[in-house]
């Protein structure tokens, strides 16, 4: 068993990073809606912020999700993991495809774009943000089979190969289930090779070191931004040099995001607040698009057209309402099916393997990091484990 397979204690900074990444997604889609509605145009500060966020917010989310795959595969085995992962993601994709298609068709007269009712049966054509669920299924299957976190040879061949594939596919997009966002395989692979224990240990280290890393990464990102990087998840026909520059910019932005998460986690109240959101990123991701669109339309109807006000209210609602719904649904089988597999279907899946005794912690584990960095305060691990994601 490698350190990445071990079950690490919870590290607040990882959950905070997930929260920051998903809040960035909500901000992006809130600003997108205003651009589509003509409330802001090219060159507006919010539009420029949106373009910058687009470069790295989904790569960061993919890397953070990749962290959880090695432990989940170790617990369930490849077949059990793929059965569980596939069932959950297929259920959520079909459910939210139907829900969002229905809502958008009903509200076509009030939105930027119309959605015909016939689109509800074209499930092979993902729309809006729902493409990410099929991508997760593809990434989970590829990583579970290749397991690039096991051994140096696999890291070089499988992990390095997936990073190269991700760069080559940067900006390549087909509006077909599973063929959108494949550039993110690079970041998911890196996340799986880092693993929860290793990254958790690193994130417990000196705040000053992370601040320096964040400043350096931010400076690199801003410099690369001048070269015109493009998001890897939007169709862009660009040359290989631009793809490489874009991937480097996304990596720099992701490192800066991790540094911000570490620094935010040094405050216990902030860490507790954001970590709670980070543990429920999937509900926020699934439900926020409909909510932020509704907020924009509602505010416009009462005469509110200030972009900053719309963004703030839309983000608060787009994060807060799904979070509250997820908390309410926990432990209520009649409601939890909105964000998870219904219990009758879950009972049919293979059960996880019995937990094996964990090896003695190695220097890069969370336990060792706590031993050498007791000053971490709110970053110190608590006696719970990261949930599967």
From TrEMBL:
Keyword Ion transport in annotation: no
GO biological process: enterobacterial common antigen biosynthetic process
Region listing for Disordered, in residue ranges: 351-389
Compartments where located: Cell membrane
Sequence ranges assigned to domain Acyltransferase in this UniProt record: 12-325
GO cellular component terms attached to this protein's record: plasma membrane
Transmembrane segments: 12-31, 51-69, 81-99, 127-146, 153-172, 178-197, 209-228, 240-264, 284-302, 308-329
GO molecular function, one term: O-acetyltransferase activity
Keyword entries, A-Z: Cell membrane, Membrane, Transferase, Transmembrane, Transmembrane helix
A Pfam family annotated for this UniProt entry: Acyl_transf_3
Low complexity: bias regions: 363-374
Membrane topology field: Multi-pass membrane protein
Family from the record: Belongs to the acyltransferase 3 family.
PANTHER family registered for this protein in UniProt: INNER MEMBRANE PROTEIN YCFT, O-ACETYLTRANSFERASE WECH
Protein name: Fucose 4-O-acetylase-like acetyltransferase
């Amino acid at each position: 068993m490698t350190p990445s397979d071990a079950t690490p204690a919870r590290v607040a900074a990882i959950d905070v990073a997930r929260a920051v990444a998903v809040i960035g997604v909500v901000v992006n889609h809130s600003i997108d809606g205003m651009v589509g509605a003509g409330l802001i145009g090219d060159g507006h500060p919010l539009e420029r912020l949106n373009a910058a966020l687009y470069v790295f917010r989904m790569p960061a989310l993919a890397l953070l999700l990749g962290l959880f795959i090695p432990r989940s595969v170790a617990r369930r085995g490849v077949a059990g993991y793929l059965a569980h992962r596939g069932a959950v993601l297929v259920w959520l994709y079909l459910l939210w495809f139907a829900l969002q298609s229905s809502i958008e068709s009903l509200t076509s007269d009030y939105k930027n774009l119309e959605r015909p009712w016939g689109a509800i049966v074209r499930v092979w054509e993902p729309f809006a943000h729902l493409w990410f669920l099929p991508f997760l299924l593809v990434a989970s299957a590829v990583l579970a089979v290749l397991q690039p976190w096991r051994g140096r040879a696999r890291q070089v061949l499988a992990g390095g190969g997936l990073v190269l594939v991700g760069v080559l596919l940067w900006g390549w997009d087909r509006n077909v289930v599973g063929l959108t966002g494949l550039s993110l395989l690079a970041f998911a692979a890196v996340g799986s090779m880092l693993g929860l224990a290793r990254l958790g240990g690193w994130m417990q280290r000196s705040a000053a070191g992370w601040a320096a890393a964040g400043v350096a990464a931010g400076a690199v990102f801003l410099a690369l931004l001048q070269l015109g990087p493009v998001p890897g998840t939007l169709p862009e026909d660009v040359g290989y040099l631009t793809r490489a520059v874009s991937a480097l910019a996304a990596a720099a932005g992701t490192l800066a995001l991790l540094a911000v998460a570490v620094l935010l986690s040094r405050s216990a109240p902030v860490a507790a607040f954001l970590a709670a959101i980070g543990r429920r990123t999937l509900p926020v991701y699934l439900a926020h698009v409909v909510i932020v669109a509704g907020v924009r339309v509602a505010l416009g109807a009462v005469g509110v057209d200030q972009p900053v006000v719309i963004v703030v209210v839309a983000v608060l609602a787009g994060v807060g309402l799904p979070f509250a719904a997820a908390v309410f649904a926990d432990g209520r089988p009649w409601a939890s099916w909105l964000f998870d597999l219904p219990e009758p279907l879950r009972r049919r899946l293979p059960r996880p393997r019995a937990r094996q005794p964990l090896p003695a912690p190695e220097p890069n584990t969370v336990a060792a990091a706590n031993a050498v960095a007791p000053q971490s305060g709110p970053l110190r691990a608590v006696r719970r484990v990261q949930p599967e994601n």
